[in-house]
Amino acid sequence: MDWLDRVKWDRDGLVPAIAQERDSRDVLMLAWMNREALAATAECGRAVYWSRSRRRLWVKGEESGHVQQVHAIRLDCDADVVLLEVTQHGRTPDAPSVACHTGRHSCFFRQLEGGQWRVVEPVLLDPERLYK
Question: Which domains does the chain have, with CATH numbers?
Answer without folding.
Answer: 3-96 (3.10.20.810)
